[in-house]
Design a protein that fits this description.
Blueprint lengths: L1 E5 L4 H11 L5 E5 L9 H11 L3 E4 L13 H21 L4 E6 L22 H16 L3 E6 L2 E2 L5 H11 L2 E5 L3 E2 L2 E2 H15 L8 E4 L6 E2 H8 L7 E5 L13 E2 L4 H7 L6 H4 L1
Parallel strand pairs: 1-2, 1-3, 3-4, 4-5, 5-10, 6-9, 7-12, 8-13
Antiparallel strand pairs: 8-11
Helix pairs in contact: 1-6, 2-3, 3-4
Length: about 280
């Protein structure tokens, strides 16, 4: 199987490159933004002709959630326009297209885990740009698989690294305790995407659409931080409400995603996030 990956240096992109390179049955072609600008149709078509992939996985995204509130145009170019162009180019060559999305498409007000069919009501620019990307992909190309995930950790900047840094620098830290979700390892996301990619190129596959995938069990950011820093016996961690930690972009208070669909279609189980922490 030959795979083209965009955003090769991001959290999930890096994990994809590592996982695929360890698999002798996969040839992977990874590109960063300087090598493949997903907002440029000519760049996309050139790479597709050059590599002739069996499947394309888009791991490129604008993920600076707070900065997006001011940098609206860039967020939409990368999260909406880029995925649409990729899907259109894949459609021209009949190549299945996999795309990573987010829990931020929801407003977080539901009681219980979100289903793929639940109404999307994003409350931030980042969430709106990601939902717009989903919608454009659906219009552009039938053969798409959109994987919504949440609370991703692995690679460079992420919550785990931030907590470790703060825990080493301060005697006390405060962490939000009224936002809930399933922390998800980039390594696990990469593994799930490779399973989905293999299924997508099989003859007769027709289960296109949106899927949810996160780690389990669901916890608050405070509980996640406590697990990350459990070996730091001297550190005091205070649980606080969201109101005491204001940010430019609003976060969903409930980011718990129902993952039964991906299990039933692909046989992919929710991973225990503590394993890869």
């Amino acid at each position: 199987m030959k795979i083209l990956v965009t955003g090769k240096n991001g959290q999930v992109g890096s994990a994809l490159m590592k996982a695929a390179e360890a698999n002798p049955d996969i040839r992977i072609f990874g590109y960063d933004r300087s090598e493949l600008d997903i907002s440029n149709s000519d760049h996309i078509q050139h790479r597709l002709i050059q590599t002739e992939p069996d499947v394309v996985i888009n791991a490129a995204a604008y993920t600076a959630v707070d900065r997006a509130e001011e940098d609206v145009e860039t967020a939409f170019v990368i999260n909406r326009d880029g995925p649409e162009l990729l899907a259109l180019c894949c459609a021209q060559k009949d190549i299945p297209f996999l795309h990573i999305s987010t829990d931020f498409v929801f407003d977080g007000q539901k009681e219980g885990a979100y289903l793929e069919t639940d109404s999307c009501q994003p409350i931030s620019i980042y969430g709106r740009s990601k939902l717009a990307g989903e919608n454009q992909i659906k219009l552009a190309w039938k053969k798409h698989l959109i994987l919504r995930t949440a609370w991703v950790f692995g690679g460079q900047n992420n919550f785990v690294k931030t907590m470790q840094k703060l825990g080493a620098e301060r005697p006390e830290i405060s962490v939000v305790n009224d936002q809930f979700g399933g922390p998800t390892s980039a390594t696990d996301i990469a593994a799930a995407l490779l399973v989905m990619a293999q299924k997508a190129i099989e003859a007769g596959f027709n289960e296109w659409g949106v899927y949810h995938y996160t780690g389990t069990p669901s916890v608050s950011w405070y509980e996640f931080a406590c697990e990350i820093l459990k070996d730091n016996r001297e550190l005091v961690i205070h649980p606080i409400p969201t109101t005491e930690y204001p940010t430019p972009a609003r976060r969903p208070s409930n980011s718990v995603l129902n993952c039964q669909k991906i299990r039933s279609v692909f046989g992919i189980e929710q991973p225990d996030w503590k394993t890869n922490l």
